């Protein structure tokens, strides 16, 4: 699907969250004055005998919610205690240019009584790195980088900047989280969620951070001095690792998210008169008499004829490209391919709905979280044919057809419906067949004086089987045999 949160750690890994946006090689704006909603913490004195590579005198992360979207302000003042911490001088932060511009307020060195303005000597270089290009993912995120000159052990490095973190598609609906990492250097930390009048969101804090919260009329503040390292119980379910987190959301429940995104996908799946896809649907109907066969044929068409490329420019992080656009350019991400499949199924008279799922993160405990689109990162289709449910994932290779259960074992899903739908828990079932098998056959029929022939058959199912299929099907039989012979030469296999 592509909607993923990129974590901007500032200098020390405190989390600010951004989505993908349009390419725009703009420099961050320099504005010394901080936003009027910013109130900084007092720096913490460096204790005698401070240990470690650095000491955080102040680290303030403030998220501001407005009618136009969200912004995150980060200000840090860090004492360099050891040479290894000089790497903090490699300053980098990323933002979504479609959501707005980045603003740098402060970058300077405090050396005794001397204050050195780094921005007067150096400037940021803006990069569009596309670090997931090999995975066919283009997100357009910009990264500003600067190497602080003449940074020394004993200096205090100060930085402050503001970045937009709202998504262009959901600009009026805020949702996200703020967290304190489980293991961070000693010092003073502050997390703050503030809002304009009328923009107060629903909030929820984990039990370990709740005692530190201070609620004010227009903000929620958590302060920590030298927070201890926390470790989740070993081998515990993933929900036990959900620690030191403040969630916020404008969505009342999962139904609100379901309704919001249902409209986006229905608009994307609508075909204009004379669209080429109508002819494709007609050809499928003529070649396959049954609805089940038609659904499988539609899925195979999208899987084989439209390659996967995630493009997150502009509002693409959440907004699906239209079915017609995806078909014309013959590439798309999970949102575009899902809209295309929905359009075909609609032309074939097959009832179908898009369903949000999560492919990258454990969803254990998801039902206890505040409703947010960020809980999901993928979308597929659930069709109903003659009271039979068929799960269709247009991003998978054509060897994965529609089936009564999703190819991946999802724990929680969110169907998208005009009236809204709640999250559903899918039944967890053991595998009906082993997912990984080896069969060894020894043929000693030629006698014990001759080498016995050994045949090993590997059988893989599920994800491992799909990976093996993609690997082996990409080369000819001759190439595959030559590769295996080369690999096995001189071995005991």
Give a quick precis of the structure.
Helix content is 18%, strand content 31%. It is α+β, with helices and mostly antiparallel strands.
Structural class per helix/strand content? Answer: alpha+beta
Shape: globular
* Distance N to C terminus: 42 Å
Count of discrete alpha- or pi-helical segments spanning 4 or more residues: 7
Described by strand count, sense and barrel closure, the largest sheet is:
9 strands, mixed
* CATH fold description of the largest domain: Immunoglobulin-like
CATH class of the largest domain: Mainly Beta
CATH architecture name of the largest domain: Sandwich
The residue-averaged pLDDT reads 88
- Low-confidence residue ranges: 2-25
Would you count the extended β strands for me? 28
**Strand percentage, roughly?**
25-35%
Total number of domains? 3
How much is the radius of gyration in Å?
27 Å
Percentage of residues assigned to helices:
10-25%
What can you see in these coordinates?
- By secondary structure, the chain is of the alpha+beta class.
- The protein has three domains: 6-250, Immunoglobulin-like (Sandwich), CATH 2.60.40.3140; 255-424, C8orf32 fold (Roll), CATH 3.10.620.30; 436-488, no CATH class.
- The chain contains seven helices and 28 strands.
- It has helices spanning 254-269, 276-287, 291-305, 323-329, 334-347, 462-473, 477-488, and strands spanning 6-8, 16-18, 29-30, 54-66, 69-80, 90-95, 103-111, 114-117, 125-127, 137-138, 142-147, 156-164, 175-179, 187-195, 202-205, 213-216, 219-225, 245-249, 307-308, 310-311, 331-332, 351-357, 378-385, 388-392, 412-415, 424-425, 436-443, 453-460.
- The strands form eight sheets. Strands 3, 4, 5, 7, 8, 12, 14, 16 and 17 form a nine-stranded mixed β-sheet that branches. It has a five-stranded antiparallel β-sheet with strand order 24-23-22-25-26, covered by helices on one side. A three-stranded antiparallel β-sheet has the order 6-11-9, with no helix packed on it.
- β7 and β8 form a beta hairpin.
- α1 crosses α5 (334-347) and α3 (291-305) runs antiparallel to α5.
- The protein is globular.
């Amino acid at each position: 699907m592509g909607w993923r949160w990129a974590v901007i750690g500032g200098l020390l890994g405190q989390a600010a969250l951004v989505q993908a946006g349009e390419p725009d090689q703009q420099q961050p704006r320099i504005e010394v004055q901080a936003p009027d909603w910013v109130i900084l913490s007092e720096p913490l004195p460096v204790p005698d005998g401070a240990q470690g590579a650095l000491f955080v005198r102040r680290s303030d992360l403030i998220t501001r919610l407005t009618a136009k979207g969200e912004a995150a302000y980060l200000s840090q003042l860090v004492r360099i205690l050891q040479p290894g911490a000089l790497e903090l001088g490699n300053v980098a932060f990323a933002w979504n240019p479609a959501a707005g511009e980045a603003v740098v307020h402060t970058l300077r060195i405090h050396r005794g009584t001397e204050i050195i303005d780094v921005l007067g000597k150096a400037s940021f270089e803006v990069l569009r790195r596309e670090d997931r290009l090999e995975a066919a993912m283009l997100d357009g995120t910009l990264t500003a980088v600067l190497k602080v000159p003449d940074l020394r052990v004993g200096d205090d490095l100060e930085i402050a900047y503001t970045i937009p973190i709202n998504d262009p598609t959901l600009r009026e609906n805020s949702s996200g989280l703020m967290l304190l990492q489980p293991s961070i250097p000693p010092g003073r930390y502050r997390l703050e969620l503030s809002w304009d009048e009328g923009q107060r969101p629903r909030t929820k804090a984990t039990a370990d951070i709740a005692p530190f919260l201070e609620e004010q009329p227009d903000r929620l503040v958590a302060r920590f001095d030298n927070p201890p390292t926390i470790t989740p119980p070993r081998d515990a379910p993933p929900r036990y690792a959900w620690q030191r987190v403040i969630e916020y959301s404008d969505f009342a429940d999962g139904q609100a998210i379901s309704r919001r995104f249902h409209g986006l996908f229905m608009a994307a799946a609508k075909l204009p008169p004379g669209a080429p896809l109508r002819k494709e649907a007609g050809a499928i109907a003529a070649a396959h008499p049954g609805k089940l066969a038609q659904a499988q044929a539609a899925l195979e068409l999208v899987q084989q004829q439209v390659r996967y490329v995630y493009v997150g420019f502009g509002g693409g992080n959440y907004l699906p490209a239209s079915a017609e656009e995806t078909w014309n350019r013959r590439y798309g991400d999970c949102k575009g391919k899902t809209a295309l499949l929905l359009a075909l199924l609609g032309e074939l008279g097959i009832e179908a709905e898009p369903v949000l799922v999560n492919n990258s993160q454990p969803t254990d405990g998801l039902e206890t979280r505040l409703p947010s689109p960020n809980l999901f990162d993928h979308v597929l289709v659930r069709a109903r044919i003659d009271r039979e449910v068929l799960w269709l994932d247009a991003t998978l290779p054509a060897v994965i057809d529609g089936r009564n259960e999703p190819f991946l074992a999802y724990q929680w899903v969110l169907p998208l419906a005009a009236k809204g739908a709640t999250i559903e828990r899918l039944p967890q079932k053991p595998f009906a067949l082993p997912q990984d098998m080896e069969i060894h056959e020894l043929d000693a029929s030629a006698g014990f004086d001759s080498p016995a022939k050994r045949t090993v058959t590997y059988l893989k199912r599920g994800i491992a089987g799909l990976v093996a299929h993609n690997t082996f099907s990409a080369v000819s039989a001759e190439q595959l045999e030559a590769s295996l012979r080369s690999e096995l030469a001189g071995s005991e296999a």
